[in-house]
Amino acid sequence: MSLEFLWYIPNQVTPGHRGDAVTVDHNSLDTLTAQAKALEEHGWKGALIGTGWGRPDTLTVAAALAARTATFEPLIAIRPGYWRPAHFASAVATLDHLTGGRVRINIVSGKDNLGAYGEHESDQAHRYARTKEFLQLVRKLWTEENVTFRGEHFQVTDSTVLPRISPHGGRLHPKLYFGGASEAAEHVAATAADVQLFWGEPLVGVQERIERLRSLSEELGREHAPLEFGLRITTFVRDTTEQAWAEAEAKVAEMAKNQGAPPQNPHRPTAVGQQRLLDLATRGDVLDDNLYTAPGKVGGGGAGTTWLVGSPEDVAKSLRKYQDLGITHFVLSDTPYLPEIERQGNQLLPLLRE
């Protein structure tokens, strides 16, 4: 199976990220388009666009960036609570049609500010049961016509989404990426998702989860193509190993000075996957060859909790070890975004494609 390399485009109202300089136009269309075009020019397939209440709408941002690019593929993060399945399926089918099949979707089920957008299902079991139905129904709407569906959370009658999604090679519809480390999340991934995304855990942890998800897929009677696996992680790359570690440690020290800003999503630290990452720091500042856990101690969250640090050769070697476990989708990033798109596109990607 071929490898796919994506980046991350910051989709946030509040400027500044992990010590970056604050700029007024950080989320303007021109700024984000410059990043998307740089991704095209430097060998990246596309980029994840993050979601959360209080952030710009991802589908709108993705549509704007797709209109200004030629090959850029947005990986659009969405929460089922923001959308009804048929409305979402129609919106994505339209964007997929207009872009010639460049759309990917990342379904997010972690807690958010539910009350702000009229949601009440905060219980984990209900949340993931709803997510599973959402995935099942959206896939049906993209691949079948005259769909009637009667679920616990969603229902449609004689529903046909237009325009119909056109197959592109072996791709019948946009890939459905999914994250989550709880038992409930893994059951959803094993049965209803296309790609399970992992955070930057040590190799042994990722290997255990891949083996468990493969077993679950068989046990639960997965009906789709085999589940694929992806890694979402910060890659801190410099010309030499020594330079990379010196600058990474300096950046963490600067983050420690500025620690205390409220998290964008206050529920994130309670998520099972996030807690797994934060717990890694108790095992040491550096795990495996170059997985740096110290950022998680000073406010790093999500993909910024752990970093792969080193020269292009160091980081490529580590990513190839994840590939050997079965990872085929890589969603990488570091800040400042635009220079790192260019640096890692020029120095890291060629090594990964050898």
TrEMBL record:
Alphabetized InterPro entries for the sequence: Luciferase-like_dom, Luciferase-like_sf, SsuD_RutA_monooxygenase
KW Oxidoreductase (keyword) present: yes
Residue span, Luciferase-like domain: 4-329
GO molecular function, a single term: alkanesulfonate monooxygenase activity
Superkingdom of the organism of origin: Bacteria
Transmembrane segments: none
Keyword RNA-binding: no
Keywords: Flavoprotein, FMN, Monooxygenase, Oxidoreductase
GO aspect biological process, one term: alkanesulfonate catabolic process
The protein's name: Putative alkanesulfonate monooxygenase
Organism placement in taxonomy: Bacteria, Bacillati, Actinomycetota, Actinomycetes, Mycobacteriales
